[in-house]
Amino acid sequence: MQTALLRLLQLTSPSLPIGAYSYSEGLETLCEQGVMGDRAALQSWLTHELTAGSVRLDGAILCRTYQGQDPIAWNQWLTASRESAELLAQSLQMGRSLLRLFQALEPDWEEIEPLMAADCHGAVAFSRAAWRWNIPLEEALLGYLHSWTSNMVSAGIKLIPLGQTAGQQVLLDLGAVIEGVIPNICSSKITN
Amino acid sequence: MADLSPPPLPNTPWQGSLDLKFAADRTRVTKLTHCESVAPYKVQRAFPCTDGTSQVVLLHTAGGMVSGDRLNLTAQLAPKAQALLTTAAAGKVYRATEDKTTFQTATIHLAENARLEWLPQETILFDQARFHQSLRINLGAGAQVLLWDVVRLGRTAHGESFLEGMWRSHTEVWQDGRPLWIDRSCLRASPELWEGAEGLGGRAIVGTLVWIGGGIDQEGFEGLRGLDQWPGSCGGMTRLPYGMVCRYRGSSSTEVRRWFVQVWRHIRGELWHCPLETPRIWMM
Prior knowledge:
The complex is a heterodimer.
Chain A: H1 2-11, H2 27-32, H3 39-52, H4 54-66, H5 71-81, H6 85-105, H7 112-117, H8 122-132, H9 137-159, H10 164-186
Chain B: E1 15-24, E2 30-38, E3 41-48, E4 54-60, E5 70-77, E6 82-87, E7 91-93, E8 102-110, E9 115-118, E10 123-125, E11 130-139, E12 144-153, E13 166-175, E14 178-188, H1 191-195, E15 205-212, H2 218-225, E16 235-240, E17 243-250, H3 253-271
Parallel strand pairs in B: 1-5, 4-6, 5-8, 6-9, 7-10, 8-11, 9-12, 10-12, 11-13
Antiparallel strand pairs in B: 1-2, 3-4, 12-15, 13-14, 15-17, 16-17
């Protein structure tokens, strides 16, 4: 239990060198357009993203690939679903960086090679890494969503800009949203 | 256009269907070789374009779709067949009764090197409509599809907003059991979603144009980006691993139609090298 928790903290830490901090997923444009001007707008936007946005799809596929469903096929599903070239490049870069890191951390893990060859998305790499580290699925999903949210809040703090305390308040409030969407994501139906 | 009085309700919902087959002859002229229809869905007319493409105009004879209606289209394109499908008029989906959803589905198989243009006129969802549209396209080797879809949420010409109801849309393009383009969305209407920046932002018209299977290089893509009907901040365009996509969220169906028609003309003329007259029913 303690080991799994420590590993989850490591996998979701901002210090994990996969470059998450360099992306704002459109927040920068929204700020420039004047659409995203305050804390309420940020919180509303992120609430909607968590309940209906593409990070929700990431989560649903994370659950499947964690459980051993064909990661290459679901990875292809994510590629076919990505809305723009920029979002696709971001997701693939984060997946590639995470797999490279695990090549060093887990040199005996044979699964990495086929994932690397498939242009792996961040969510798929994360799910397999969490599985490798024996982190329970729901906790891994919670960690993934928290990490994504935390990163978006950091981007909002810089771009809007917001004070650090306001940012932490948004993150605290969104905790309930994350907890709320987890059962829904775990049981979501995606069928071919 | 549409008046505000409720449409007449038939006792039983319509279950229209169409089954079409296209084949190219030795001179590379495509013909509609099979057409089986169940009212109120029918082919209004089918005729060859100057480049040999078979242009088919689909018609919904009842004028609009009521709660519980189902329209189903299946089509097959033989190797090298080229078909352009459009509709005779804007589609209308009336307010749902008893929460019954209206369904419109299309499943189209393209054999190798076939080409499909799926370019219907806009669909208007009345407030409180419940509509599920689904389009699935399977591409053979070397086949490609250019499609668009424009939806108006609420009869905005009458000042109506889409505050209640549901719009679900599944568009998928597959090849050899692999998904190339998956576009699934579900909009459960609410005042917050209508107003909110992350929802419709008060803009009633949503449009998507996708070209999958042809492959487009950066130079070709830059040509499309440079078109003068680009609707500014209401439009976005991006390259995909298997093609390209344009998105529109705005307030003018004329604006989105002009942009999409220009993109379509550009792809036809500059990238496929077979320019075509704009179908008269799209005239604006």
